[in-house]
Amino acid sequence: xxxxxxxxxxxxxxxxxxxxxxxxxxxxxxxxxxxxxxxxxxxxxxxxxxxxxxxxxxxxxxxxxxxxxxxxxxxxxxxxxxxxxxxxxxxxxxxxxxxxxxxxxxxxxxxxxxxxxxxxxxxxxxxxxxxxxxxxxxxxxxxxxxxxxxxxxxxxxxxxxxxxxxxxxxxxxxxxxxxxxxxxxxxxxxxxxxxxxxxxxxxxxxxxxxxxxxxxxxxxxxxxxxxxxxxxxxxxxxxxxxxxxxxxxxxxxxxxxxxxxxxxxxxxxxxxxxxxxxxxxxxxxxxxxxxxxxx
Length: 295
Known about the structure:
Layout: H1 22-33, E1 37-38, H2 39-42, H3 48-53, E2 58-61, E3 65-66, E4 76-77, H4 87-98, E5 102-107, H5 118-131, E6 136-140, H6 148-155, E7 161-163, H7 173-176, H8 182-195, E8 200-207, H9 213-225, E9 230-235, H10 252-264, E10 269-272, H11 282-290
Parallel strand pairs: 2-5, 3-4, 5-6, 6-7, 7-8, 8-9, 9-10
Antiparallel strand pairs: 1-2
């Protein structure tokens, strides 16, 4: 018999985006105008209200359905449609209309495509550079099945930040990321930094899936060895009862302990918070690393 699920603590609760908020309405209008998706909606991100009211969003390209079945994720998992050839330009148009200075682009995993969707990422970066050249671009990619050829397509168009999430500690991949491999993901990060040493790299982790502190520290050490610049870490919140159960809700004090552990492991830019997600404080951290005052 399953254990009783622990209710969501108050400090993790966030309001739904108000329907009458002008900024949030503007974001939705532009997304609809260009037929675009966001991970904010697809993954039920708890920060959606904050982002939309600040006239920003994390764009989700290559459709709304994923070819993998990660047990923590709310993205639909079924046979995907063919990529929309107009999507890269439409994303760039939306970035321009929203007046973004820092854009974050992610995607579903597309193992069905010959290049795993890398070319679509490259086209999107190209179009943003073309239509809004002053915008800084961060991409959060799947592992492309570890294909160096796919990663070179990304390198050729040089995003400002390359992000790929490890998500959890190695032991929990069998339950959380059944179709992924920890070493493959780690090697993607290593390859990007080794090939382009001045490229800012980034990864993200969740806690609350049953990991131990020792496992987290070892993962922080692996990340440091891969020379990753930025690490985000947030609390896993189950999207529904069908998803992996939360084994533990970490307190605010425990997040401080985890951040100190990461710094001890050599992580220079840990962004740790219960509601931290992959794009959490993305622009601010980029400015901190580059020493710029604005994007």
